[in-house]
Amino acid sequence: MIYFDNSATTPIYPEALDTYIKVSQAVIGNPSSLHKLGVTADQLLQQSRKQVADLLHVSSKEIYFTSGGTEGDNWVIKGTAIEKAAYGKHLITSAIEHPAVSKTMQQLEKLGFEVTVIPVDAQGVVSAEAVKNAIRPDTILVSLMAVNNEVGAIQPIKEVGNILEAYPTIHYHVDAVQGLTEFDAVIQHPRIDFLVLSAHKFRGPKGVGILYHKAGKRLAPLLTGGGQESGQRSTTENVPGIASTAKALRMALEDRTVAHQTEMQLKGILIDFLTGYEDVRIFSTEQGAAHIICFAMKAVRGEVMVHAFANEDIILSTTSACSSKKGDVPATLEAMGVPSEWSKCAVRVSLSGENTQAEIERFKEVFHQLHTKFQKIQK
């Protein structure tokens, strides 16, 4: 089987899985318990927190563990709204955000908050100047994704960060779930207040997320109860998953340079190949993230293409795993102005550093066969 759906989820590192299993078996205590089993669990929890913090070049007091990207995004947005409602009810985001952000913003609108949605250009990129122009005296949050999950468009996170230096009271939230491979270039900026990661996007376990929460920035808890995570996120911590996540993050950051080079090479080969077909449109650019290529074959719906490739043991997806089963029009492509007759045909190949040129060659062979088949059907 050839796996080209790494934006949806990645296969866990064997080493991270081994950590998960060993910790599950050996560390059985609740980290909130006072007895020695609880102390052992808490020690491992704090060691994992420090490892993650060191890898992200922040303080361990600024790292909180969640259940994933969706919870992290919800927590930052709703937590900001609750905490800062007395100072303003205006939020800024973009038209190409993940539903964890866009639908959360829609919820807040029903509660009396006002949301400005910044449009994107034909490449799916937000204008930093447009963000600046949208800022008002009552703005409390700017929320942007680092890398778009549908087409791989890299957003001007640093440029917006530079603008927000002049507005220290506005929270700056970055959804970096798809952006770890762009860590140095995009998501490492001192003005970022909150940054969200999800372990299963960097070969860690499912069900664990990381929230960077800058010291001094106030955020209301989303989950209240027993007071775990310094009172900010109540629920018993998933110690095996967190230890596994710390291991996976270290490995992913160590591998990212070589992985990025591999992905860029394979992406270039694939784009060159698809460009040769007159009835194929490519929505990702070479300047976008190395691991995502979104394209469409004219008059062939995305789900048909996905199933046709699956029959040949090649796994790809429609543009977003979160929306693929619903048959929704891809939000990013709609925001980019792509006509619906093309966007409904869009599929996404998302790579990892583990993919090979031989796998791309097999993809090309199958694609050509399917292209010939679909052309005959349409005539």
Automatic annotation (TrEMBL):
Q: Which cofactor does it need?
A: pyridoxal 5'-phosphate
Q: Which residues form the Aminotransferase class V domain?
A: 2-363
Keywords noted in UniProt: Iron, Iron-sulfur, Metal-binding, Pyridoxal phosphate
From what superkingdom does this record's organism come? Answer: Bacteria
SUPFAM superfamilies (UniProt xref): PLP-dependent transferases (SSF53383)
The record's annotation in Pfam families points to: Aminotran_5
Record InterPro entries:
Aminotrans_V_dom, Aminotrans_V_PyrdxlP_BS, Cysteine_dSase, PyrdxlP-dep_Trfase, PyrdxlP-dep_Trfase_major, PyrdxlP-dep_Trfase_small
Q: Its Gene Ontology molecular function terms?
A: catalytic activity; iron-sulfur cluster binding; metal ion binding
| Family label | Belongs to the class-V pyridoxal-phosphate-dependent aminotransferase family. NifS/IscS subfamily.
Q: By its UniProt entry, which PANTHER family does this protein fall under?
A: CYSTEINE DESULFURASE ISCS 2-RELATED (PTHR11601:SF50), CYSTEINE DESULFURYLASE FAMILY MEMBER (PTHR11601)
Q: What is this protein called?
A: Cysteine desulfurase
What's the source species for this entry?
Jeotgalibaca porci
